[in-house]
Amino acid sequence: MRARLEALIDEMLDGHILLAEAVSEFEKLYIKKALSRNQQHLSKTAQALGIHRNTISKRVADYQKEKRPLARAAGRGTR
Q1: Choices 1.10.10, 3.30.420, 3.40.50, 1.10.3470: CATH for 18-77
Q2: Nearest to 60 by CA among 76, 73, 41
Q3: pLDDT score recorded for residue 17
Q4: Residue spans per domain, the chain
Q5: 3-state SS string over the chain?
Q6: Would you give per-residue pLDDT tens digits along the chain (79 residues)?
Q7: pTM, rounded to two decimals
Q8: How far is CA 22 from each of CA 3, 12, 13, 16, 53, rounded to the nearest angstrom?
């Protein structure tokens, strides 16, 4: 696994991905995958990740907010 991570990090550095962006994207994908494995059950997912249910609930709400402005902006351009 370490070799795969190092290769990914090299690719991200070559693409000039900032650390904050990389960490944020990793966290988002990690949580989404964990939610999927736990049938979207927040408490089970939080327990599996070792975080509080309120934390995961807030993160999921934040991820949903990120998508909304993009969908609205895309809709405006097609009218």
Answers
A1: 1.10.10
A2: 41
A3: 94
A4: 18-77
A5: CHHHHHHHHHHHHHCCCCHHHHHHHHHHHHHHHHHHHCCCCHHHHHHHHCCCHHHHHHHHHHHHHHHHHHHHHHHHHCC
A6: 999 999 999 999 999 999 999 999 999 999 999 999 999 999 999 999 999 999 999 999 999 988 765 444 444 444 4
A7: 0.75
A8: 17, 8, 10, 10, 24
Q: How many CA atoms lie within 13 A of 27 on its CB side?
A: 14
Tokens of 8: 């990914």
CA-to-CA distance for 66 and 60, rounded, in angstroms? 10
